[in-house]
Design brief:
- The structure is a single chain.
- Helices cover about 45% and strands about 15% of the residues.
- It is an alpha/beta fold.
- The chain is elongated.
Amino acid sequence: MTDTSRPAASDAASRAVTDEDRDTLSLQLGRPVRDVVEIGARCVCGNPLVATTAPRLSNGIPFPTTFYLTHPVLTAAVSRLEADGEMARMNERLATDPELAAAHRAAHEAYLAERARVGADAGTGEVPEIDGISAGGMPERVKCLHVLVGHALAGGPGVNRLGDEALALVAEWWTPDSCACEGAWDADAAVPTRDLSRHVKHLERVAELERITVAGVDCGTNSIRLLISRPAEGADGAAAPLADVVREMRVVRLGEGVDATGAFAEAALERTFAAVDEYARLVQRHHAGRVRFVATSASRDVSNRAGFVAGVAERLGVEPEVVSGEEEARLSFSGAVSAVDVAGLGAEDLILVVDLGGGSTEFVVGTADGAVVDAVSTDMGCVRFTERFLHSDPPSADEVAAARAAVGEILDDVAARLPLERVARVVGVAGTVTTVTAEALGLEEHDAERIHGTHLPVERFRAAAEALLAASRSQRAERGFLHPGRTDVIGAGSLIWAQLLERVAAVSGVAEAWASEHDILDGIVLSLRS
C-alpha cells in the first residue's frame, strides 16, 4: 500500500529554504551548512529531514549526494540498519531479483534527473566530474542506505524502492507521521550560519579542534573500532594526557572465512564499509584533523585487499595501513602499558603485552619506560582457531585437545624467540582478555572502568576461561558482559589466553596477570601525536 503520509516536499513553497531552515540544518549536523538549494523533505512539524544540495559546492568541489539526510533520529535509525547488515542482504537480492535490479536502476536515473534539475535551479550548470554517477552505490549496488532513504523521502513513495523498504524497517525508531524532533538537537545552541562574525569564530574553533583532535581506527579480524581523542580540558603541550571524545566498536567479522578462502567475503566487506561510513561521520562531526586507519592480521594477505583499501579510502579519506605484525605489536605495547603498575621493576625486568585478536596474537616485550625490546606475531586468534578446531557447541573434548596442541606448538616458538624468563608483568589486551576478566570478576555487564588495570592470579583467569570454553553458545549469550559478536568465538580465545598464561608463569614465575582496556587503538592515537 502506498504511504501517502510521507512528508516529501513536493511543492515549491514547501521546498523553499528559509534562514530558520539553515539554522536548523546546522544544528542537526553540528556544522554550518552550505549550498542548500531546497528542503527535500520535512518532518510533520515542518523541520527539515533532507537537505537538497547543489551538485557543485561554492568552493568548487563536486558533490554527488544531492539528497542529504539530516535529521539525527532518522540518521541514527538508518545507521542501525547498516550495522545490522541490511545493505548486504539488499545486495544479495539485487544479484538474484531482476525486477528489483531494474527498479534500482530506475532510481539511479531518477536521481540523475533530479540532480540536473537542482543544478539548473542553483545555477551550477553541468558537473562533468560526476556525470552519470548518482550516489549510494546505484545503479548496481547498495553502499549507503542514508542516500537511498534521503532520495525516497525527497521523491516520494515508489521513486526509490530500496529506500522505501529501509524507511519501513526503521519504523521502530522513526515514522513519517510523527515528530521526533524534541531533544534530537540543541535548539538553543548558537548557530554559526547567519551572523558572519559568529561564523568566523566557528571556523576558528573548528581549525583549533582539527589541530588538537586525532582519530584512530583499528580494523581487525573480528571487530572495527574508533577512538577520537584530544587533550584533556585545560591540558596543553605534547605530553598532555589525551581524553576520549568518542570510543566505538562494531563486530563486523571482516576475517570470516578468510582462513579457508584467502579472500574477504562480500558480506563481510559490506558490514565493514557500513561501520566505516558511520565512523567517517563521527570523524567529521568532531573535527579530527589527523586520522590513522590500521588494518591487522586478516588484511595482510587476502587476494582482494585492493578493493578493501579502495573502499576505506573512498569513505574515510585516508588509505588504510595494513601493518606488519611487528608494528601491530609495537602499537599494542604503547597503548597497553598504561594499565600496569611498574613500581618495583628492576632494570632487567620486562613487561609482556599480549594482544589476542581474531586472526592473530601479538607478543611484545618491553621495558617499564615504554621501550620495545622484541616482538612476535603469530597466526593464532579466536576467530581463526574457532574455524579450525572448535566446531561443536559446546566444543568436544577432541576438538579442545587439538586446539590445545596447536596453541602449544605456537607457544614453543614464542618461548624460543622471546626472553620470557625476564618477564615480571603480563598484561593482556583486546576483547577476549577483557571478556575473560569480566567472567573472573563476576560482572553482570561490561564495565571498562572495573576491568582496566585489574590484576588477578593466573589460576583465577584459568578458571574463568575454562568456564567460558565449556559453556554452550546459548549459555554464553546469557552473560550480560559478553558482546553478541563474541559469543561463538570466546571459547577459542579463552583457551588461548589461559594456556599462554600458564606457559609464561611456568617460565618466569609470574603468578598474576593484568587486563587493559587500552590497546592497539590507543597506541594508534598516541602515534599521531609524534
